[in-house]
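Protocol step 4 of 6: structure prediction from sequence.
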Amino acid sequence: MANSLPILHPPVSRRTEILAGVSTFLATMYIIVVNPAILSQAGLPFGGVLTATVLLSFFCSLMMGLYARNPIVVAPGMGMNAFFTFTAVKGMGISPEVALGAVFWAGILFLLLSVFNIRSAIVRAIPHPLRYAVSAGIGLFITLIGFENAHFIVANPATLVSIARLTDPIILTFVFGLLLTSVLVVRNVPGGIIIGIVLTTLAAWPVGRFWGDASAVNFGQKTLVNYQGLFAAPDFSLLGKLDLWGALSWSLWPVIFAFAFTDLFDSLSTFVGVAEAGDLQDEDGNPRNMNRSLLTDAVATTLAGVLGTSPGTAYIESAVGIAQGGRTGLTAIVAGCCFLPFLFLSPVLSVIPAIATAPALVLVGAFMMKPITRISWSQLDDALPAFLALVLIPFSYSITQGLIWGFLSWTLIKVAVGKSSEVSAGLWIVDLFCVLALVSSD
């Protein structure tokens, strides 16, 4: 029964699933341009990485929808592309081809963990208070990303972060989009999130043309909404360019483990958090179709090395489509299919600015806060580890760090207060993975 694919209740309409898939794509499409922008700094060709990003997102989101039947998009993970570029290639001085080989072997390690259901056992070992906290923490993380994309929250040397000037046309446009999308969502307007993205894009068109200047936040371009052409041919130059044997050097095993463990905890926390927020759970309270979802994530990492990009993983922005009503694999299928045309139409992405999708990301945070009401805040040995997981996800800008410290603090506190019986054997294994993840990331 654990691998059965349950029928959803209540039923959802195909129209709702399609709208949810489009919403998810609009919230994740930035990766098509951002991923090659980061990996090109490692010496990989921009066009080759863009093609690899599109292909990986298409095939693995399709697999998530058809095989795992979950409404979750899979694409190259943010954070892991930065690790690939700045730690593996620039920091350690290894070639991009060898780094791609390390990605491939990290994927093979994932596949082994998935085939033997080790990853599923890890998910089942996560205490329920931590599950609730991770869901809310991911919501806060997504909200922070939305505010950052809109440049509403900016760096401040005195206070670490602060709010931007509210008189800035970009900020005013974002606030307009946020309030408008909020009203559409509250009034249950069908496709409200998509409508909000479209109307915010239209509202952003005058910026740099009739008022304001977006040069400081839009890569030197004065205007915020830009049309840069229609067609660009795909670049398959990175296909199969990984160095498999060079990546197996003893000195590179820490890189492989860092890829593996970071992706492990990112995907686990995403599945757990999204499942809690969207009520996508099986009869045992675990994320629905977990084994198949984790296997899909493992395939994404392995395929990433072959195609020429950093590891693929489940995307937390999938919560945007779930908030729109997506509950089945059709949402992931639609989102995945939306990626494919951009093998040829990548310049069109410049039309929708980041501030147009930012309101949707901010609102998703509110949708994902509900599970924390199920945490017993008066039971401090449960509440404190949950709180650490909740706040460290956005504060450290890392889902992995929030989950790791939530696990370790849960175990240490329970043992210290004489409740070691509440630490399952599976959780002790998880703690070992946590320590290995911390060591391999140093």
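Step 5 (inspection) to follow. The first strand starts at residue 74 and ends at 76.
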